[in-house]
Give the backbone structure.
Amino acid sequence: MSKHVVVIGGGVAGLEAAGRLSKAGFEVSLLEKDNKTGGHLNDWYKLFPDRRNSDEVKAYLYGITLHDGIKLLTNTTIEKISGNKTHFSIITNKGKELVADAIIVATGFDLFKSARKEEYGYGIYDNVITSVELEEMFRNGKIALSNGNVPKTIGIVHCVGSRDEKVGNLYCSKLCCVTAVKQAIEIRENLPESKVFCFYMDMRMGGAYYEELYREAQEKWGVNFIRGKVSEAGEAIDNKLVIKVEDTLAGRPLKMELDMLVLMAGMEMSDGGKKIAGMGGLNTGENRFFAAADHHYGSNRSNIKGVFYAGTCTAPMNITETISHARAAVSEVMDYLRDGR
Amino acid sequence: MEKYGYTISKGRQIDYESNDRRIAEYIYEREPSFRLCIECGGCSATCTTGNITKFSLRELHILIKRGENDQVRQNIRKCMLCGKCTMVCPRGVNTRNIVVLAKQAFQKSDEYAI
Amino acid sequence: MKIEGKKAIWKDYQKEIADDKFYYVRSCVRQNFFPGSETTFLKIMRDELKKDVYEHPCHTTCTGIGYHGDIVPVETTMTVVARQFAIMTEAGYENLLPSCITSFGLYTEILDTWHHFPEVEEKVRQQLKKATGREFQIPKNLAHASDVIYKFRKEIAAKAKYKLINKNTGEPLKVVDHIGCHYAKMFPSKGVGGAEYPYVLTGIVEEWGGQIIDYPERRHCCGFGFRQYLVQANRGFSVACSKEKFESMRPFKPDMIITNCPGCPMFLDRWQYVINEMEGKRYGQNGEGIPVFTYEEVAGLVLGYDPWDLGLQMHQTDCEPVLDKMGIEYSPEDKYNTGVNVEHSKSHNLINV
Amino acid sequence: MYKSYLCVNLFTDHIFDSIMEKLYDLLLKDIRFEEGLNACMNCGVCTAICPAAEFYNYDPRKIVDSVQTKDDDEITELLKSETIWYCGECMSCKTRCPRGNAPGLIIMALRALSQDLGFFVESEKGRQQLVLKRTVGHWILKYGYCLYLEGVGTALHPEQGPVWDWIQDNWSDLFKKMGANYKGDGPGILRKIPEDAMDELRRIFEVTGGMKRFENIEEFSKKKAEELDMTLDEGIDNEYFRHIYKTNNGCHTR
């Protein structure tokens, strides 16, 4: 009888892990809390840095997972996890028990809830939106203000919920800078008359072809970059947003009116992940993400034998890294089930 | 008006809306590499003037971009156009030419004649 | 503007405010500039709401203005504050009720410091003992006087004779709320509604019929800045801050400003006069100025107290436009009648903005 | 290393003569400094909303950045500078800092040290501390109030307007009408604070270094007045006081 592996989470990491496990001959159950898989990929239209359609990546992932070898359980959350030395018992919200030889936790991240940065007025001022909402506008082919008008000046705020002790997140979410640059370019493509301003603390363009994208944004698209953390936004009587920032490289405070403000919300340990950490006795780090057994060579291993991590439940990662990390998790599971117990 | 022994202070914020950025536009058109600066400060570090006075070429670029023309005008004369800065720029910005063009733009504009 | 977003934030910043048995400490600025406000506050608390509010003659300044003017060392201020606590403890009270925002902020800051650095509290205890022989307990509850009015806003509304409504149009008055910086900017959780969208005055104004205006410079300081106003050479900065606010609120056409800090109403009131004198610029409808009130004054007006008992004649910017809009009956000829020297008072020709 | 001829240890009553101590270490003794400084990443969020930075040639971010170098020369320069006196202590910066710093508290620690070391008289704005000492400080120790404004007319405060003239002219009656217990016994507005309470207040100032701060301000100001060849008698009606109260060289703002 083949071994049974339960994968928790049907986002990029979960799908990749499930597909690879199935290909390697394991019996796989894939648990997803929503009614469909795909995770955050469903929220993004085009991906950085090459701006390919996210549907293409989803198509690849669905290609390796949507078959009889993988038991997909949607709308499924976990009520209880228990285990002895060789097996785990997972009770779902539907009262079903799954017995697993190993578990891959791929619970991903939650987008930082931008309303927590109260001073930016998300959820209060009409034209303060998040990167995800802008992406939805790109998908629908219409970038518009709340009154339907086309924005002429758009500000993009980096580090919303990242590198910020006030919201309890000391870490860098790593992908917001490149997302900001990508979205800035796309705004300019869609609205050639518009002016776009990125407010950043440091441009962290650490992925392949990210820096090149940054350069393109400057060179080809005339995106303006202003170094300073936006301090607050207010709403003027004509619905324009008044923002205050220090132009730190000029050493002067700067005040600007914008039609639209886009918040680059960061990544946080998911609520689902937190719940599982609590009931499974899994260690989390100071950043609240799952703490891997070793930061350098054990990033897929947890503090419990037989439980492994894949993807952004351990730290912010891009899709490339997430897929690699999921594959690595599968390789750890294979070692474990062969001789590791 | 000084009536009570003081005047009402004027703001020193960069007021983006009311600033005149025509000098910057003039340079963007003629020297597109002006857009490529990443504010590394390499130019200022190597700048002879910058090493003996308070002049900062990096900051001058920012001030041009923001339309802080008075401050630009006060400082731009300090540049001796030696061109050392262009040799170190990691983004290949023709930093010297930006100063040349800014001076040109000022000269062409009566309002900002140097 | 989506009010739901603010409501969600307000829900997160509820603070505990005592119900009764308050120990009241006065404000240096209020006593000198708005004495009627403190008198009105106590009248509302004691006569209308039947609360026990105790005041001890031996309490002193908390030294707040000296502290923030940097002439009083932090240890001195902490020990003076400890003495206030000691007098309260001796009087058998636990709920501290400061009239002043600077004091409130200072008490909050000091309690927070002692919480994080118990050795500092211990040192202060020793110094207080050495200097005065007194000992103290930490207050059980610390609420600013505006918090308390906020808490009892519904009770006051139930007794109200007037509303913050324009009698002629039936429209709510458009009110700018100005929150003292030290109310919640240092410790957002200590203010009703937090630091970014404080609810303390908003709740009061809405309960009494008015409508709050949210304008871009809402969070800006009035410009007091302690040494910035107290020294003449620095006042250009001080007035510039208020001017920034007036310019920003101007398009919203506010009927009035309400404040919860002792100093802000004085500055927002006087600087309108100064800006007009220096630059010929007038604010408010028809250039008649934007009347500025303390929250106690507004409570008193709503309850139907005589405007001249509240001390509205001590404002430089006339309050009458708001009284007229609310339909409040008042006697214009009694405005400058101090009840003793009528002729002398009347002889002054007051120029208002 | 900075050789201070008079170092006041801010959290003890002792005064050490001629000790060698780093200025940064002296700052660390101020509890507000410990609370106010973690590590600044120069994001500028403080300067963006700082009312002082809006009008003065001032950048709280740069001050924090200077201080965190721990460099004695940089800190000395700050202590003698105009720039540390622009802050209005509204503390808006504390609300926003993503690193939990409070530039306003750091400024307060710098100002305290500048006065303890006598550096405050080296700047126009710093010299104004004598104004505050001789007004607010005087009122605190004499009356028990930070402000005691009877007799303080529109000569010193012209912006108070005609209403203030009227208030000053009718002070006593008006305050009676306002329900004050002006100069009276018992509780109430502008009551006479009993002498034993005033004694306690003054003893607290003695014991905790408040009096020492006042003496320092006086002592260094007198030296400065001599240096500037200006008269400085008691009170506020003298050349040096008027000079520091009114002088603005115009270089502080744009």
Q: What stands out?
A: The domain at 4-108+270-340 of chain A is CATH 3.50.50.60 (FAD/NAD(P)-binding domain). Residues 104 and 308 of chain A are 5 Å apart (CA to CA). The mean pLDDT of chain A is 96.
